[in-house]
Specification:
Arc Repressor Mutant, subunit A, two-stranded antiparallel ribbon, elongated
C-alpha cells in the first residue's frame, strides 16, 4: 500500500496534526460502533485509511498498537468526552427544573406544595437526563469507559484514564451543585440533612445512578436489537425482565395529589435527595427572584 496522504495534497502534516486526526477518526469509529466495541479489535490500518494520514508518521508516533489504544482511551475519556466542558450533563435538564418551579409558583407557599414541586421537577428532569444519556453515542461511550476502566488499557494508563474521566465530569458536577445550592434549596426550603454530607456527595451519587441506569438501558436495547442468543425476553424471568422493569413506569407522587408515572431512575433519584436533604424549619418564604 502507498504511504501517500491523499488528503494533505502534498503538504506535510505535523506530528500533532497526525496524532489528533488519528485519535479523532478512531473516536468517530468507536462512537459509530457503539458501547459494544472492543478496542482490542480496532485496526490501526483501518483508522489510517479513514484518517488519510501517512502510515510512516503513525508508526513513528505509536510503534505498537497498545500505545495507540492507550492514547485513544485518554482521548475518549478527557476533553473529547460527552461531559467535558458542559455546564450540566444534559443542558435541557437545568431548563426543565427551572420551568417546573416557575410554572408552579402558586404551590410554593406551603410545605406540601413545595414537596409536590420538588417531586415533579425530579420526575421530569431525571427522565429527560437519562433519556439523553441513553440516546447520545458519546455519552454511552463515556459511561461504558467508567464501567470498564479497571480492566481497560494497560496498567500504566488506567490512572490517566480515571483522572481524565473525573476531570471531564468536574464542570458538570459543579453545575449540579450550583443548581441545588442556588435554586432548588432556597426556593423549595431545603437544607442538608447532615452537615457531614455535602452537595458534592449528592451530585456524585446522582450522576452514578443516572449513568448506571442509562448504560443498563443501552445494553438491554443492544441485546434486543441484535437478538443475541440467550438474551432474556421481557417478562421471561418471572420478575418482569430487565427491559420491562427499566421501561415500565413506576407509580409515584404527582402534582395534583394523585399518583403520577415515574421512571425507575427518577424515583431512585428522589430517594437520594431525601437521604441528603430535608425541609428547613427556618424557611420563611419562597422567591424566584426577578
Amino acid at each position: 500500500m502507498s504511504d501517500a496522504d491523499p488528503g494533505a495534497q502534498g503538504r506535510r502534516r505535523s506530528k500533532e496534526q497526525v496524532r489528533e486526526t488519528m485519535l479523532q477518526t478512531a473516536l468517530e469509529m468507536a462512537v459509530e460502533a457503539g458501547v459494544g466495541i472492543s478496542l482490542d479489535s480496532i485496526s490501526v490500518e483501518e483508522v489510517i485509511q479513514n484518517a488519510r494520514v501517512p502510515r510512516s508518521s503513525v508508526y513513528r508516533i505509536w510503534p505498537a498498537k497498545e500505545m495507540f489504544v492507550d492514547d485513544l482511551l485518554c482521548h475518549m475519556a478527557g476533553r473529547h468526552s460527552y461531559f467535558s466542558g458542559q455546564d450540566v450533563f444534559d443542558p435541557a435538564t437545568f431548563a426543565v427544573v427551572t420551568a417546573t418551579i416557575r410554572d408552579n409558583k402558586h404551590l410554593l407557599g406551603s410545605a406540601q406544595g413545595r414537596r409536590a414541586v420538588l417531586c415533579e421537577g425530579v420526575r421530569l428532569a431525571v427522565q429527560r437526563n437519562v433519556q439523553a444519556l441513553r440516546q447520545n453515542s458519546n455519552a454511552r461511550i463515556h459511561t461504558a469507559l467508567i464501567a470498564t476502566v479497571s480492566s481497560t488499557g494497560s496498567a500504566a494508563i488506567r490512572p490517566r484514564i480515571a483522572q481524565a474521566l473525573d476531570d471531564a465530569e468536574a464542570a458538570s458536577r459543579r453545575s449540579i451543585v450550583a443548581l441545588f445550592r442556588d435554586l432548588v434549596m432556597p426556593t423549595l426550603g431545603l437544607r442538608l440533612r447532615d452537615p457531614g454530607a455535602t452537595l458534592d456527595h449528592l451530585a456524585v451519587a446522582g450522576s452514578a445512578l443516572a449513568q448506571g441506569l442509562a448504560l443498563r438501558h443501552v445494553l438491554v436495547d443492544a441485546l434486543a436489537k441484535d437478538g443475541a442468543d440467550g438474551a432474556p425476553e421481557p417478562g421471561a424471568d418471572g420478575d418482569g425482565g430487565s427491559a420491562r422493569l427499566l421501561d415500565c413506569p413506576v407509580p409515584g407522587p404527582g402534582l395534583a395529589g394523585r399518583p403520577a408515572e415515574w421512571s425507575l431512575a427518577a424515583l431512585s433519584y428522589l430517594g437520594l435527595i431525601d437521604t441528603f436533604l430535608e425541609p428547613d424549619p427556618g424557611y420563611d418564604g419562597a422567591s424566584l427572584g426577578s
